[in-house]
Amino acid sequence: MEAVHRLADAKVALASPPRDWGSVVVTRFLMGKVDVNLPALGVPAYGINYGPDMHLERTLNGRRVSGSGRAGYLSLLPMDEDTRWVFDKPGDIVLVVLNRRVFEDAIEQRTGKPASAAEIIPRFVIRDFELERIAHHLLGEVSDPRPDGRLRVEQMAHELTSRLVDSHTNVCEPDVDSTGVAPNRIKRAEEFIQENLGADLSLEDISRAAGMSRFHFAKTFKQSRGLSPYAYVKELRLRQARTLLHDRDLTISQVAEAVGFSHSYFTAEFRQRMGMTPSRFRDVLQA
């Protein structure tokens, strides 16, 4: 972690206590540099944008990719490869690092394969609500430690390990869609949902956008995405709300309205999903 801080010329805002946290560490820092050559860290790690929208580039094994990262977008770092990161502005970054031994033990126990057979897939500017949630809980524990903090941190490390192994390794990638539905139909439905998150959506509206009957769409969408259309819409609304909460000019009510929720329903759903209220979420952001 110290190496990352040094290479990024970082101004550290929060950092987990190194002696008390053995399985996972977290830090939040403001970058001093916008061009960072990062050596292989040798451990599972991911960084999340906690600041304004930014444009960034990553070079890995001579291949350069670029993208736009809004607040909450994250990238997973390769464990054993050097990378170069170029940003259009200094970023407000949260970095989460998992103990490698914890990760390798989980690979062997959950997959029955040797740890050497697995590697983190270096995702670039993606959304992963679970990884965001875990990072935010860890930051909350740093800024406002609780009596049961050690157990909470270990639980977060366990959840982080499971998420990485199940969703972001080469040994547990999701199965290929076998629904027989043309992928562009599901894609059209997803785009329609994204463009109308604040509206009063109906299954009829979404299935019509996909060019399918309601019954066929509901069945095949769940088979394809693992969520019902209703659960998928709620998940996207909560993700969008998570991003909007970074904008301190918006009230909680305005955030709720922007994603199609009432204030009270939004608070209840956000608390259930994130384990904290939207107000508490903002408290951690501003700590």
Short account of what is shown:
This protein has 11 helices and 9 strands. It has 287 residues and is of the alpha+beta class. Helix 3 runs antiparallel to helix 4 and helix 9 packs across helix 10.
Strand percentage, roughly?
Answer: 15-25%
The gyration radius over C-alpha positions equals 20 Å
Terminal CA distance:
20 Å
What is the general shape? Answer: globular
Number of strand elements: 9
User: How much helical structure, as a percent, in the residues?
Assistant: 40-55%
Structural class: alpha+beta
Summarize this structure as a short list of keywords or feature phrases.
alpha+beta, five-stranded antiparallel β-sheet, 45% helix
List the SSEs and their pairings:
Blueprint: H1 2-7, E1 11-15, E2 24-30, E3 35-38, E4 45-49, E5 54-60, E6 63-69, E7 74-77, E8 83-87, E9 92-98, H2 100-111, H3 129-143, H4 149-167, H5 183-195, H6 203-210, H7 214-225, H8 229-244, H9 252-258, H10 263-274, H11 278-286
Antiparallel strand pairs: 1-2, 2-9, 3-8, 4-7, 4-9, 5-6, 5-8
Helix pairs in contact: 2-4, 3-4, 5-6, 9-10
What does this structure look like?
The longest helix is centred in the middle third of the chain and has 19 residues, at 149-167. The protein is of the alpha+beta class. Helix 3 (129-143) runs antiparallel to helix 4, helix 5 (183-195) crosses helix 6 (203-210) and helix 9 (252-258) packs across helix 10 (263-274). A five-stranded antiparallel β-sheet has the order 1-2-9-4-7. A four-stranded antiparallel β-sheet has the order 3-8-5-6, with no helix packed on it. The mean pLDDT is 90. Helices cover 45% and strands 18% of the residues. It has eleven helices and nine strands.
